[in-house]
Structure formats: structure tokens, C-alpha cells
């Protein structure tokens, strides 16, 4: 059964009722200038979307309404465009709307962790004068939110994104509200849209680090669409780097390579500094490594080091500062591990772990988890236990990255064959207690 039909049935809605709700929502989105002409929905059209193989691919405005109604991209409803082998699949972004048009939309959205129902202070008022005619946005407000986004990024590097996606999502909603309801000049408008893109890709990253993969892909896609719409090649490069990293964790090596290469094309358009090109090259290498392609992986690793060794400069964006010697060494070690080169991976990851600093505790935790896996694969159970124990200590001290927890699960499974060795059984119990 297609997801679109399953959701309707689970929400106890008839096709007639869904068509009525979609029509109402279309008018709402049109009034908020989220879509062009409101699309016309009918029971016959909905029936085709639910049952035909392949289903008809809706008009862009109709896709936006469907995505807003069900609170997820239409691609996750079982609707797909014609296959495009030359470029990455970009999910239809879910419009942020100020107020849900009916209770049935809230029921339908209840099955996913993130919903786009606005908090009370964002609801539209229906009495008094038009607020948008009175609310002039001050540059200081935009700067304050931008600095908050930078603070969140720094916190993510040390503690992980589990506790950051909620406040970042609130900041993003407020930024969209400022864009839609406030008064500002053109330069400040550019800053607001740049801030929205920055928050959207950060939100995608935090959701990814928190293990909310579907939501992460949605926000990455929305950030990439925004970058393409505004011609923001810096945002596109950053977002595609994030998407490539997530694709590796989702075991989508080909997709990771495509994202990294597309990111490199955008990087050329803004003459990106060497640290950015090094990051995109190592993302490409990770994709090849996940595919088991040693030849292309080696070439991409070599290119990443060549770019990185050119050194940093004052044009390096803040989101690329994490790529220091420790991190690039760790990322190469991860590639080696995926390529089955466990001894070389252990050497690189052990070197990276000694270089990591306190400001990058989350990355150190990731490195320790992979070092443990590499050591066990290399038959070095003692060092594997040592690295896993240190990763557990970081988790216990407040680091909240779901990715580190997932890596510890991998370590747990890798150590099971050695459970009778001294200390292994106790370590396995500790891992289960923290990541169950």
C-alpha cells in the first residue's frame, strides 16, 4: 500500500475529506505567497495518486500542498519523478506554514518527531491592525540570530546535535516569520534569506547527528533548493558536503560521490578556499570507500591532502574550520576502514585521537568508536577495548551524538566473538547500558 493511502487511512480520513482539506490548505499557502495559483484537487486525482502505477507526478504547487498537509516530502508519500541518473534526488521541501488549517492535519502529522505546527506566538492575528505594517526588522535582530547559529555550531562540535535541533528549528521558524511578516530593505532581506539558509542546513546537520535521518534529508533538500533559488553557491557547497556525509552513513556510496562532486562544482563558482575543496574531496573519497572503490578513493584522498596542505586563510567559512589535521587524519582512517585496510586505519585513527582537542569532543568520540572497530578488525582487542572505554566516558560526560552511540553498537557487535576475553563482557554490558 502506498504511503499516501496508508496515512489517509490511519488518520481516519475519507478521500472526499482529504480533498476538502487540501483545497483549504492550498488557499492558505497561496495567501501566504508560498505557492502560485492554488491547484485544484479532486477525488479522481487523489485516487490516481494513491493507486496508479506509476502515479502521476503532481505539479510543483500541488506537491507543495501535499507536502505541507502530510508534513513530509511527497517523495516519502510514494510519489516519484522520472528517474534522473545524472543528478542527486532532491526531496520536495515541506513549506513552513503559520497555522494548520484543520485538526486533521495535526492528526496526520503525529507520527513523525518533527512537525511544522507553529507555536502560539507565531500564529496569525485576525484582529486589530496589520502587524506587518508595524513590524520593522532591525539589523541587530538578524545579527543576534546569526550569532546564535554560530554558537550552536560550536556546541555541536563539542557535544553533538541531539539537543540542538529543537532550538535551531525555533530560530528557523522565527526567521521565516520575520521574512514573511516584517518590513526591511533589500540588503537586510538578503541577510535574512542567507540566515534562513544557514539555519536550514544547520538544522539538517543537527537532525542527522541526532539520528533523525528522514528529517535531516528534508532540511538538506530545502537548504539546497534555497541555495539554488538565490544563487548562494557557498550554502550549496556546505549543504552538499553535509548530504554526502549523511549518504555515507546511510550506505549510499554513489549518492555520496554525486553530492560531493556537485559540491565541488559549486565551490568552483565562488572560488572556494583550499580547506573547503579539501573537505569536498575527502567526502568524495568516503563515498568511493563505502563502494569499495580503492582506485578512485585513493585519488580523492590524495587530492584532499594536497588541497589541505595549501593551508587556511581568512576566507575559510566557519563551517569548514573543523577540518584540522586531526579531523582529516580521522576521515582518511574511516576511508581505510571501509576499504578493509584495518591495520592502516588503526594507525591513522590512533594518530587522530591523540591530536583531537577539547573543542571537538564529539569528533573525538566518533574517532574513538572507529578506532575501536579498526583495532578489533585488526585482531587488537585490548586497544579496541581501550578506545571504546574512552568513547563511553565521553558519552557519560554529556556528549549527545546519536552517531557516536551507533558507532558503539557496531563496536559491541564486533566484540561479541571475543566476549570470553578478560574485560570484554563487562565492556559489552556498559555499552548496552548506554546505547540500548
Describe the protein's architecture and organization:
This protein has 436 residues and is mainly α. It has 19 helices and no strands. Residues 84-89 and 97-132 have low confidence and may be disordered.
**Protein structure class:** mainly alpha
Q: In angstroms, what separates the terminal alpha carbons?
A: 32 Å
Largest sheet: none
Rounded to the nearest angstrom, the radius of gyration is 23 Å
Oligomeric state: single chain
Spatial shape? globular
- Measured by DSSP, the beta-strand proportion falls in under 5%
Helix content: 55-70%
The low-confidence runs, each spanning 5 or more residues with pLDDT under 50, are 84-89, 97-132
* Average pLDDT taken over every residue: 80
State the total count of DSSP E strands: 0
Our count of helices gives: 19
What is the H/E order? HHHHHHHHHHHHHHHHHHH
Amino acid at each position: 500500500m502506498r504511503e499516501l493511502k496508508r496515512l489517509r487511512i490511519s488518520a481516519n480520513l475519507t478521500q472526499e475529506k482529504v480533498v476538502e482539506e487540501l483545497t483549504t490548505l492550498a488557499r492558505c499557502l497561496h495567501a501566504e505567497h508560498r505557492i502560485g495559483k492554488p491547484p485544484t484537487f479532486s477525488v479522481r486525482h487523489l485516487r490516481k495518486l494513491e493507486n496508479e502505477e506509476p502515479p502521476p507526478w503532481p505539479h510543483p504547487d500541488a506537491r507543495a500542498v501535499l507536502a505541507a498537509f502530510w508534513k513530509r516530502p511527497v517523495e516519502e508519500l510514494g510519489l516519484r519523478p522520472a528517474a534522473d541518473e545524472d543528478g542527486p534526488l532532491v526531496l520536495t521541501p515541506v513549506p513552513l506554514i503559520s497555522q494548520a488549517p484543520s485538526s486533521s492535519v495535526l492528526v496526520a502529522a503525529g507520527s513523525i518527531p518533527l512537525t511544522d505546527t507553529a507555536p502560539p506566538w507565531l500564529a496569525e492575528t485576525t484582529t486589530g491592525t496589520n502587524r506587518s505594517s508595524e513590524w520593522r526588522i532591525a539589523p541587530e535582530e538578524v545579527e543576534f540570530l546569526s550569532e546564535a547559529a554560530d554558537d550552536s555550531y560550536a556546541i555541536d562540535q563539542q557535544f553533538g546535535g541531539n539537543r540542538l535541533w529543537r532550538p535551531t528549528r525555533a530560530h528557523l521558524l522565527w526567521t521565516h516569520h520575520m521574512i514573511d511578516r516584517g518590513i526591511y530593505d533589500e540588503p537586510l532581506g538578503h541577510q535574512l534569506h542567507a540566515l534562513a539558509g544557514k539555519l536550514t542546513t544547520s538544522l539538517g546537520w543537527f537532525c542527522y547527528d541526532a539520528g533523525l535521518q528522514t528529517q535531516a534529508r528534508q532540511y538538506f533538500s530545502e537548504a539546497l533548493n534555497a541555495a539554488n533559488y538565490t544563487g548562494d553557491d557557498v550554502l550549496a557547497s556546505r549543504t552538499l558536503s553535509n548530504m554526502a556525509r549523511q549518504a555515507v552513513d546511510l550506505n549510499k556510496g554513489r549518492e555520496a560521490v554525486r553530492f560531493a562532486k556537485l559540491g565541488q562544482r559549486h565551490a568552483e563558482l565562488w572560488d572556494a578556499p583550499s580547506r573547503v575543496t579539501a573537505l569536498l574531496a575527502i567526502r568524495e573519497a568516503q563515498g568511493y570507500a563505502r563502494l569499495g572503490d580503492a582506485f578512485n578513493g585513493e585519488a580523492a584522498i590524495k587530492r584532499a591532502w594536497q588541497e589541505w596542505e595549501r593551508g587556511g586563510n581568512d576566507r575559510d567559512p566557519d563551517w569548514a574550520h573543523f577540518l584540522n589535521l586531526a579531523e582529516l587524519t580521522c576521515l582518511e582512517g574511516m576511508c581505510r576502514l571501509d576499504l578493509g585496510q584495518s591495520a592502516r586505519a588503526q594507525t591513522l585513527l590512533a594518530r587522530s585521537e591523540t591530536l583531537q582537542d577539547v573543542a571537538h569532543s564529539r569528533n573525538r568520540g566518533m574517532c574513538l568508536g572507529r578506532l575501536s572497530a579498526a583495532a578489533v578488525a585488526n585482531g587488537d582487542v585490548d586497544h579496541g577495548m581501550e578506545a571504546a572505554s574512552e568513547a563511553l566516558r565521553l558519552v557519560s560526560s554529556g556528549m549527545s551524538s546519536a552517531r557516536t552511540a551507533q558507532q558503539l553498537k557496531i563496536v559491541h557487535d564486533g566484540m561479541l566473538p571475543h566476549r570470553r576475553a578478560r574485560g570484554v563482557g563487562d565492556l559489552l554490558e556498559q555499552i548496552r547500558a548506554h546505547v540500548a
